[in-house]
Amino acid sequence: MLVLFKMLLQLYLVTKGLNNVNVSIGIGNLNC
């Protein structure tokens, strides 16, 4: 469940800030 939630959250962040893809990737790496 946590994995699915994390995946959905990351996908949401990517779709929300498509212009800031680099920032989203950086946040995802920090969360990892």
Commentary on this structure:
With 32 residues, this protein is an all-alpha fold. 81% of the residues lie in helices and 0% in strands. The protein starts with a helix and ends with a helix. Keywords: Signal. Residues 1-17 form the signal peptide.
List its salient traits:
32 residues; mainly alpha; 0% strand; flat; signal
Question: What's the gist of this structure?
Answer:
The protein has 32 residues and is mainly α. The chain has two helices and no strands.
Helix content: over 70%
| Helix count from the secondary structure assignment | 2
Radius of gyration from CA coordinates? 9 Å
* Cα separation of the termini: 16 Å
Helix and strand arrangement:
Elements: H1 2-16, H2 21-31
Signal peptide: 1-17
Keywords: Signal
